[in-house]
Amino acid sequence: MEQTNNLGHGFDVSAIRKAAANLDDGAVTEGYQADREAVIAMLNDALATELLCVMRYKRHYYTVSGPGTGQIKAEFLEHAQQEQEHADRIAERIVQLNGSPDFNPATFAARSHAEYDASENAQDMVRADLIAERVAIESYRQMIVAIGDKDPTTRNMLVEIMAVEEEHADDMRDLMA
């Protein structure tokens, strides 16, 4: 019989108490509703995307030159740091879900949603980064929809990351000549 708490909210106390079992599962309780392996695979693709974006922004930061590129250079560095923060958050979440973050550089390009860029001039770099940000936004939007309400922690993280990617896209659009 389902037990209720003293407030009468209809909590399934027996299910809540089952959370004390299977301690090796860490944060993943029996109530976790998403397909954990699918979420981990999705997050590993997002991890590859973020890491590739770090490399692209870093390359742009170090190679952009010319008059009037100081602001662009600063944006590239800031975005590289924020993309690294995203990668770190995603890797931490994969571990929380009892998965293994895939940092294999040999498979980054195949798993990444965005592409690497070797542009030589500032405007081509900005354009490539705007395209990559738009790709990331759509990728995160689709991941958020796929997860739905089945994994609120992952969903909230993806929503927060997507908001930063939207800011990046606005920044790149504003830098277009």
From TrEMBL:
Organism listed in the record: Massilia aurea
Q: Cite the Gene3D superfamilies for this sequence.
A: 1.20.1260.10
Q: Which CDD domains match?
A: Ferritin_like
Q: Which SUPFAM superfamilies match?
A: Ferritin-like (SSF47240)
GO biological processes: intracellular iron ion homeostasis
State which Enzyme Commission number(s) the record gives.
1.16.3.1
Example of a GO MF term: ferroxidase activity
Name of the protein: Bacterioferritin
